[in-house]
Amino acid sequence: MTTGRGNGRNGAGKEAQTVPDYASSAGSTGRNDVRLLRNEAEVSELHSLVHLLLPLEDASRRPMNSTRDPFNLRTKATFKTPSAFGILQNAAKKTASQAVESSKQAVQATKQAIQDSDMSFAIPRNVPNFESAQRKFEDNVWNKLPGNEKGLPMYKDKPSGKVYGYGGGGARGRRGFARSKRGMGLIALVVLGLFYWFGWSSGGTSVGGAQDDTDRGKSLASKLGGSATGKTSKADWEKRRQAVKDAFLLSWNAYEEHGWGYDEYHPVSKKGRYMAEPSGLGWIIVDALDTLMIMNLTKELNHAREWISTSLDYDKKQDVNTFETTIRMLGGLLSAHYLQDTLPGLKPANANEEDVFLEKATDLADRLMGAYESPSGVPWASVILSDAKGEASHADGGASSTAEATTLQLEMKYLAYLTGEAQYWDVSERVMQVVDNLGAKDGLLPIFIYADKGTFRGNEIRWGSRGDSYYEYLPKQYLQTQKQEPVYQEMWNESLRGAKKHLLTYTKNSHFTVLAERPNGIQGNLHPKMDHLVCFLPGTIALAVTGGAPLSEARKLPTWGAEQEEDITLARELTKTCMGMYKVTATGLAPEIAHFVLDDPPKMYRTEILASKSELDTQVPEGEGWKADFNIKPADSHNLQRPETVESLLYMWRITGDDVYREWGWEMFESFVKHTAVEGNGGFSSVGDVTKIPPPTRDNMESFWLAETLKYMYLLFSPDDLLPLDQIVFNTEAHAFPRFDASKKRFKTGWERIPRDDKGNLVPKKAVEEKKTS
Gene3D superfamilies, per this entry (predicted)? Predict the structure, then answer.
């Protein structure tokens, strides 16, 4: 477990890690060139940090802190209501301070380079083929990330039009002054001068300092990205994206220092815990792998990859949850395998390690296969990894969660496609057939199902916990195989219409759209409650109706009509309701569950979606106006760092192009940083009560904080062609898989639905045959 740690923490900096070691097969000139390029990248990063922090530095000089507290989280005053900007700005300053020595070395190297300025730049002999399809895709991804030059693989600086200091097109574009060796020297000297002027080179004081509550209340918006309302410039979103990256690094570094290798991390006590002895399951490391890749954190990625290669072992006498292990571990490994081949500069230096993620995924999947060995084909809730033996749930009368049993298909189908092994496809597909053959009314499934009998337990209907991701995976299965399996689109349409008919209602005062529950079945009373988990739905609706394409393009399709337009309106209104769960609280963080005040009898959906009457003005007094429609009970007031709302914000922004979704995401990020950051650089924690300031901590950092919440925020503030929604699907843990042509591997849907009559009832096969012959 500690073998890879030394290399990851003590090796070269991020830029050096990012540079492929072309010089390994080149002569000494090639090695010198690579060294100069690395120094150039370091100075470029310092230059960017100066531009980020210079306008924010006090005019007065500050004395140096005697206590090392780079994130300014130790003092009670700071921890009470920590400034989001103070935390993240100090993170940037720490990076700058640590890089000063590297920049000094860069100056010395540059002086020598200027003296030898007549020496032409030598391209390494094994430079990649820039005309390949892979390179073109990488160019499209990375060249559109404004201000991200410092984090790119150095070979991306090959001239390609007017990019990164190169003038003109053509193969012989000239390097601009900032990229020349003489320019490099001047930039480095200027940067060092600025560091000296502000005292950063000697470890100047943190910007957060001893701020009062008013100062700490100043938002990140005014410091990094402009106002939290209205339009902002492109550069502002790049700064906001960097702030999310800094928050991720704060979380990751805390885990790396205090909990490395553990499956759970407790940021307040700074301890970890294994879910399976002796060395754990890699729960946090594997779940965060593709976030590291998307953020281009190559040093941290190399550390994680080495741990997975040398320490991750699934041969454990331990029962694990089939669903959670599939979506987090199997999904994380498969996504990492995909992205290391898709995004530039992420392949391991050792070619023998290129398949380590796929190998680990296949080993894990083979162990999970035991869960599908039930009499009905519905997977057991748990599986013992060492024996590949499934076990019934230890609660709920032995029944499996319906959502958990039907949220395994994206992962298993993608693995089948990669390996050509049909058994992964067959067992996961069989589950969908068994569930659909039960003929749930209007596509609304009870939330429990027996694995041994293949029948539902009870009749409780909800799209929150235990029901949610069944519905999420219907359109995603359709899109994953490039729309070659229309049965899943048909099932989705049926379920969404059923939800409108039986669950969709509106609040009493402001007409917020609510997707309520039916604890006693479709004919039972409506329960005005929404889990935060339901907030996946607006984004999924938008994805399903457009296929991930921009709304302006989707509306031009011949399949677009009144129902599709209504679905987009429904997605907008549900997103507003979900955002209201954040804005209604004192912390700006959503509770785990919200209840709503309805008319008596409830106002239900009839023929169109009603527009809400509120714009979520936070200045409205508590319990008045639109806030009177929300009821947060003490038992439901905790926040687990969940991603569902920001997930929908990403989809809604990418598909509609409406700036409000980005702005809401930024407000959400500010609240997380302000109220969940842990003193002493512990990272971020879930909290116990979002209605109180400061909220009590729960001393736990969920793995999906790294895998989902911060990933979706980062993508929300990124250019749209970083993981385009019309080319990939995210699993329910935000792990990205490509859309693929299943027919190339001879995979197809191996079952057909039992026909339904006009009332949605199953039509027996005999009746269908008689109708055909009559």
Answer: 1.50.10.10
Q: How many CB atoms lie within 10 A of CB 509?
A: 17
Decide: 499 and 463 in contact? Cβ < 8 Å. Answer: yes
Average pLDDT value for residue range 442-459: 98
Picking from 663, 641, 661, 636, the residue whose alpha carbon sits closest to that of residue 651 is 661
Mean pLDDT of the 444-468 span: 98
Cα end-to-end distance, the chain, whole Å: 70
Q: Residue 190 — very low, low, confident or very high, per pLDDT cuts 50/70/90?
A: low
Q: Is the pLDDT of residue 385 over 50?
A: yes
Domain segments of the chain: what residues?
483-676
Instruction: Report, as residue numbers or ranges, the catalytic residues.
Output: 324, 468, 592, 644
Q: Quote the CA–CA distance of 332 and 350 in Å, as a whole number.
A: 21
> C-alpha 726: how far from its chain's center?
17
3-state SS, residue 204: strand
Task: Indicate the residue type of 532.
Answer: H
Q: How far apart are alpha carbons 269 and 253 in whole angstroms?
A: 15
Q: For residue 742, give the amino acid letter.
A: A
Amino acid in position 675: H
State how far the Cα of 117 lies from the Cα of 765, in Å rounded to an integer: 83
- Angle at the Cα of 371 from the Cα atoms of 367 and 374, rounded to 5 degrees: 140
Strand arrangement, sheet containing 630-631: 529-531, 593-596, 630-631
Angle between helices 84-115 and 181-198 (to 10 degrees): 140
190 exposed, middle or buried (CB, 10 Å; 0-12, 13-18, 19+)? middle
Locate 693 and state its tokens: 């300031």
Residue 119: pLDDT band (50, 70, 90) is very low
Mapped onto helix, strand or coil, the DSSP state of residue 488 is helix
Binding-site residues for Ca(2+), please?
732
Residue with tokens 């990140």: 220
507 DSSP β-pair partners = 598
Task: Give CA separation, 58 vs 146, 209, 240, 265, 746, in Å.
Answer: 27, 11, 21, 36, 65
Q: CA Rg, the chain, in Å?
A: 27
Tens digit of pLDDT for each residue in 283-311? 999 999 999 999 999 999 999 999 999 99
Read off the amino acid at residue 4: G
DSSP 481: T
Kindly report whether the global pTM for this prediction surpasses the value 0.90: no
Residue ranges of the binding site: 732
> Which pLDDT belongs to residue 146?
36
Question: Which one is the CATH code of 483-676: 1.20.58.220, 1.50.10.10, 3.90.420.10, 3.65.10.10?
Answer: 1.50.10.10
Cα 677 from Cα 251, distance rounded (Å): 9
Taking the CB of residue 501, how many other CB atoms lie within 10 A of it?
A: 15
Residue 421 CB coordination number (10 Å): 16
- DSSP codes of every residue in 612-659: PS----TTSPTTSGGGGGEE--GGG--B----HHHHHHHHHHHHH--H
Quick check: 413 and 741 in contact, CB under 8 A?
no
Torsion angle (degrees, nearest 10) of CA 222, 228, 230, 233: 50
CA distances, 657 to each of 251, 553, 589 (Å): 30, 12, 24
Under DSSP, is residue 503 helix (H, G, I), strand (E, B) or coil? Answer: coil
Q: How far apart are CA 261 and CA 277, in angstroms?
A: 11
